[in-house]
Amino acid sequence: MITARAAATFEPVGRSVAAARTFVRDTLQGWGLTDIVDDAVVLTSELVTNAVVHAGTTADVVCIRADTGVRVEVADRYPEREVPLQSNGGHHFGSPDREGGRGLLLCAALAARWGVEYTATHKQVWFQLDFPERPAGTRAAGPALPSSALPIADSRVRVAVVQVDSDGLISAWNDDAQEMFGYSPEQIVGKPLTDLAAWPHTPGTSTGVAEALRLSRWEGSYGIRGADGRVAPVYASHLRIRDADGAASTVCLLVRDRERAVLQSPMRGAAADTSDSSERGPASDAFEVFIGSPAPDDLDGLLQRTVERARDMLDGDAAYLLLATDDETELEVRASTGLPSARQRFARVPVEAGTGRYGSARMPAVHEDLSAVPGAVPLLINTGMRSVVTVPLKVEGRLTGSLGVAAEAPSRYSNEEALRLQFAADRIALAVERARLTELEKLRRGSLSFLVEASDLLAGTLDRDQTLALMAQMTVPTLASWCAVYTVADQASDPELSYVLHEDEDRIDGLKALLTKIDPPEQVPTGGARGWTGPYEAAHAAALRTSLRSLSLGDSARPSSGPGASLATASAVGGETVVLPLVARNRVIGMLTLGKPTDEHFRQENLELAEDLSRRAALALDNARLYSERTAISQSLQRSLLPPEQPEVPGVEVEVIYRAAGEGNEVGGDFYDLFPIRDGAYGFAIGDVCGTGPEAAAVTGLARHALRLLAREGFGGPAVLERLNAAILDEGARSRFLTLLYGELWPQQNGGAVLKVVCAGHPLPLRLRQDGSVEAAAEPQPLLGVMDDLELYEQTVTLDPGDVLLCVTDGVTERREGTRMLGDDGLVDVLTTCTGLTAGAVAARVLRAVERFAAEPPSDDMAILAMRVPEPQDA
Fold first, then answer.
1. 143 part of a folded domain
2. Which residue, 565, 507, 573, 571, is CA-closest to 536?
3. 82-91 pLDDT, tens per residue?
4. β-strand 318-324 against 248-256: which pairing, if any?
5. CB atoms near residue 113 (< 10 Å)
6. Which SS3 state, helix, strand or coil, does residue 537 take?
7. H or E element that contains 531
8. Model confidence over 501-559: pLDDT tens digits?
9. Are 839 and 807 in contact (CB under 8 A)?
10. Is residue 92 part of a domain?
């Protein structure tokens, strides 16, 4: 006979599962059926989940009370959905963790009867829970048992009654307590109970005796040290009370541990199972009973299933799990259900948030109404949660995490639920820590590979701009959603925004504009990441101003761009932003800024990896700076060794080609010069200093400046070179051998030119006549920088119209490929083909011949000086 009925419909959204649990719990408690509430809630949760989550339809839940029990029906609007059928071998529904069929498995395990019914539009799963057979009015009862099955106790059962005040001091001690432990009331009253209690605590929990005395109700075992010094194991039941004046105290009932049946609360029995125990498999393990089998092999999967099971176990609306950092100072959110996970994931909270028990994550805590203590649980601010219970996860006494379950209704949880949740947390703590260490090892291996690759990339360039780009590209999107690099020129300079990168290229310009308008982060040389709220505050202020301006303009006058760009930038920088100093050689040279989009946080492992990267990047950036400075200085000095603008020589074509070997070199050991001496006279020189590098360049500078000075003082060619030879020898150990071709040029009125040349150890100048013949235009003489006394002489050469004088350094004649060398004869052959060409064309053809002679680029400095007297028709 049906005596009561209740029904409700739930929409296909995730929150409906919690609402259905609340509906069933409230209905059955209202009917006074508290004994079967837990089983009914668990079964309803699974069946409604199948309907609203997996089937994606509304769920109709009906509770029917009859004379013998309660029937709960869950119907969905997806009758085609497959229902796992029983196999021929018995009740087999597959794994309890598969998405479909788990509710039916629980029905078979917990319900007295169950079934599935189909209609044209509905599929209905129902189960029935029978009322327990016990006398009316009792809180708990067990079946009648034969005497042989009853628990054993002494003929005189003693129950010690001990009352402990709010300071933990014993205030009452009855006769049974004196008989059991040997202390008289006079000896024991006023002493702390903790002086007598010989903990270990109850196996499987993390609660000590001092903490147990603060709980409203506690039950467990520990030891009491008697007057004879022996420890007597006892089973205790604690109840926290207060007197008429409001003073709190705890009443402790204690019996010998072997007589615990006198006080122990009856445990909720397992569902009847008539099958052989050998067929139950490993599901009897406490861990797998809570988590399910098989357990997920990845950390995120294990944590997510843990919070879902904890929420269902305590019939909560939300649950979350936090893992402790290595130093146990902060907790990081790693999994949640019923909360905005995108906003909460990887958020960090301190382990010690305040004084007192509830201010530490190391102890269980129950908040009956969060509205009375706003901010007590930061993760639940503005989530609508009113009551919460949290327990620590510990491994070998070390805090590894925290597990919490919350509900929207106040006063939903008490210390009894805290004990249940703590028991579950103790079951999973070791598995969670093992999975966390496995994940951490994978992350560290990946981090090492990342740092090795980053180091190779950074070491592969000495260009400052490229180094800045590499720094940003290595962090986005691997470590952050956006990155900005600030550089500091010197200690007195302000940081300068040098590079900005966002994973979405369309956001780069808006982000750069935002960062340009705000003050850069403060320069702090200490290592480690620190938070920076500047971008977030500026972006949201700009977005608010833009939105208000758009509203005030009205729809017709609203700007075409609207507030979208500002809002997009605000969203891009709305998450956590950190700044890492770039410190190299004990000096702050910049700052690396990393950011996340709205409501996202950095993982601790990623921050540590970013710190390692910043140290390497700082050194690479400083090396690039030093190299740039050295290169700038070197190029400046080299440019000072090159002659100024080449003068125009009337009546003579002059072309010079100069190539310095080596990367970044503008001047080497070879040099040239062409300069006016006095009216109608010009000096020219081409030389080669022995060796390369700075030492050779130094002699180059000495020779070029000495030639100009001596020639303008009126000295002839031999005198100029003799004095230069003495100056080179005066350099001592720094001196270098020098081959030099020096001459003076006098253009003639009739169209020709007269030259006086001195060839000191240099490749001889070649004269190309109009008829194509080539001949040496001077004789070889000793090179400079070897002997003190030189007797040099000059030779006169006359260039007729159409003639060419070609002067080169040995980088041209000694061009090699294998055993072949261009040589003087090869140069003569090239010059023979240049009849009728201008001076520029002659120099270009010689250069092309040198470059084509071998596949490899030239390895020696090279200078080519071509002078030609044009023919009358050319003029």
1. no
2. 573
3. 444 444 444 4
4. unpaired
5. 12
6. helix
7. strand 530-531
8. 988 888 888 888 888 888 888 877 776 788 888 887 887 777 777 766 666 655 444 44
9. no
10. no
Q: Which residues pair with 591 in a beta bridge?
A: 486, 581
Cite the DSSP H helix spans in 576-603. Answer: none
> How far apart, in Å, are the Cα atoms of 97 and each of 39, 83, 106?
18, 15, 11
Look at residues 632, 650, 673 and tell me which one is the last residue of a structural domain: 632
More confident position, 104 or 262 = 262
- The overall pTM is greater than 0.90: no
| Nearest CA-CA partner of 373 in 401, 392, 353, 350 | 353
Closest to 399 (Cα-Cα) out of 334, 501, 343, 331: 331
Determine the Cα angle at 738 with ends 735 and 744, to 5°: 130
At 126 the three-state DSSP class reads strand
Q: Do residues 463 and 471 lie in contact, with contact meaning Cβ atoms separated by under 8 Å?
A: no
Q: Are 359 and 440 in contact (CB under 8 A)?
A: no
Structure tokens at 816: 């090699």
E strands, 11-166, where? Answer: 59-66, 69-76, 113-118, 123-130, 160-165
Name residue 275's amino acid.
S
Residue type for 373, please?
V
User: What is the band of 846 on the pLDDT scale with cuts at 50, 70, 90?
Assistant: very high
Angstrom CA distances, 453 to 391, 484, 817, stand at: 42, 21, 38
Q: How far apart are CA 32 and CA 491, in angstroms?
A: 76
Residue 272: Cβ within 10 Å count? 8
CA 262/CA 272 separation, integer angstroms:
25
Asked whether residue 45 is domain-assigned, the answer is yes
Mean pLDDT of the 568-587 span: 81
Helices (H), 716-787: 717-730
Examine residue 149 and state whether it is found in any structural domain, yes or no.
no
The four Cα atoms 558, 559, 560, 564 give a dihedral, to 10 degrees, of -90
- How many CB atoms are closer than 10 A to CB 249? 19
Same domain, 713 and 806: yes
- CA distance linking residue 627 with residue 622, whole number of Å: 8
User: Counting Cβ atoms within 10 Å, is residue 865 exposed (0-12), middle (13-18) or buried (19+)?
Assistant: buried
Q: From residue 451, how far is each of 205, 581, 607 by CA, in Å?
A: 42, 18, 13
Closest by CA to 742, choosing from 723, 768, 770, is 723
DSSP 3-state of 795:
strand
Tell me the sheet residues that pair with 482.
Answer: 502, 595
Residue 216 near residue 365 (C-beta atoms within 8 A): no
β-bridge mates for residue 9, sequence order: 60
The answer to whether residues 403 and 484 belong to one domain is no
- Crossing angle of helices 534-553 and 564-572, in 10° steps, is 160
CA distance linking residue 443 with residue 426, whole number of Å: 26
Q: Which two tokens stand for residue 468?
A: 């800045």
What backbone phi and psi angles, to 5 degrees, belong to 341? Answer: -65, -35
Amino acid letter, 143: P
Total structural domains in the chain? 5
CB-based burial, 625-648: b 16+ in 10 Å, e otherwise? bebeeeeeebeeebeebbbeeeee
Same domain, 729 and 683: yes
What pLDDT score was predicted for residue 557? 45
The parent domain of residue 373 ranges over 293-441
Contacts made by residues 639-644, CB under 8 angstroms, sequence distance 24+: 639/666, 639/667, 640/701, 641/667, 641/671, 641/697, 641/700, 641/701, 641/704, 642/666, 642/667, 643/672, 643/673, 643/674, 643/675, 643/704
Higher-confidence residue of 536 and 620: namely 620
> What is the number of residues in the chain?
875
764: its two tokens: 């001889």
Nearest in space to 106 (alpha carbons), one of 10, 38, 59, 16 = 38
Q: Answer left, alpha or beta for residue 174, where phi above 0 means left and psi between -120 and 50 means alpha.
A: beta
The angle subtended at Cα 269 by Cα 265 and Cα 275, nearest 5°, is 155
Distance CA 326, CA 614 (A): 21
